[in-house]
Design a protein that fits this description.
The chain is of the alpha/beta class. It is built from ten helices and 14 strands.
Length: 291
């Protein structure tokens, strides 16, 4: 008997035997709290290939910071990165597609962030530009230290103080915002940024947000990918845990939220799987696809 604490609306699974594509979020879904890919999740993803089911992930990260995970699961499809603003195959230089912020939008973001002395990062496909005094850049620096001692790919980082006018003259896919302790996207900074024309403010986790071109989302990217593969969205399964995952949960035929997801995210799901620290992804894939 299925554990109703871990799964709800399970009977609906009977209608989804034709799933051809699975798209998973990374942090809080495929990965555990230490940002590691555990063996059970890895094994479950690899078994999808034996069933003829395609797999990829959609993340707020830049794709370079996911390549080692892609290699572990022998990923064949492009990676959806920067919350849907980019899509690129593992190891490739050119993207399948890339949506970027305009110079006018970047100038406005720079003005507002400077006004509030905000911690912000500009992301290209391969580089990260950071504001002077940024605490968030320490996450990238830590990743680079690990990357340099292993098989991961380091990310080029550049302080905006070294850039004329503080605005890079190259395509920027997203701007990451780290709010002050106790603040979030509803703060004065967040509200002002959300008013920039042609820009969407997307919440990935509490206390942070991404600024991406409007009409850009994981959901739009998954839809683009599915169409390119000749797969109907009703035959797509998506898994996630944060607000930035809702767009793909809404568009897919089978939507799965993790137990660690917020209540709002769970309200958009057909199934609630176990916690990401308790092999929730592996469990739900095994149940759905009889792996």
């Amino acid at each position: 008997m299925l554990d109703e604490k871990l799964y709800r609306l399970w009977g609906k699974i009977l209608d989804y035997r034709n799933i051809k594509l699975v798209v998973s979020d990374l942090d809080g879904t495929l990965l555990n709290a230490e940002s590691h890919l555990n063996e059970l999740n890895k094994e479950a993803v690899l078994k999808l290939k034996d069933k003829g089911i395609k797999f990829t992930f959609a993340t707020g990260r830049m794709d370079k910071m996911t390549w080692h995970f892609a290699q572990e699961v022998e990923l064949e499809l492009p990676i959806i990165s920067c919350n849907g603003a980019a899509m690129r195959y593992l190891g490739e230089k050119e993207p399948l597609y890339s949506k970027v912020l305009s110079q006018e939008q970047l100038e406005r973001i720079h003005q507002i962030c400077s006004k509030y002395s905000a911690d912000y990062l500009f992301y290209t496909l391969d580089k990260v530009y950071y504001s002077n005094g940024s605490k968030r850049i320490e996450v990238i620096k830590k990743y680079n230290r690990i990357a340099e001692s292993g098989e991961q790919v380091p990310v080029e980082i550049i302080c905006l103080d070294q850039v004329e006018g503080g605005i890079p003259q190259e395509p920027i896919n997203k701007t990451f915002i780290r709010f002050e302790e106790g603040e979030d996207h509803n703060s004065a900074l967040g509200m002002e940024l959300s008013q920039i024309e042609g820009v969407d403010l997307v919440v990935s986790s509490h206390g942070t947000a991404d600024l991406i071109p409007e009409h850009t989302s994981k959901g739009e990217a998954v839809e683009y990918l599915a169409k390119s593969l000749g797969i109907d969205m009703k035959d797509v399964m998506t898994l996630g845990d944060q607000m930035n995952d809702i767009s793909m949960l809404e568009k897919s035929g089978l939507a799965v939220a993790m137990e660690n997801a917020t209540a709002e995210v769970k309200s958009h799901a057909d199934i609630v799987a176990d916690h990401h620290d308790k092999d929730g992804l592996a469990k739900v894939l095994k149940k759905v696809f009889e792996l």
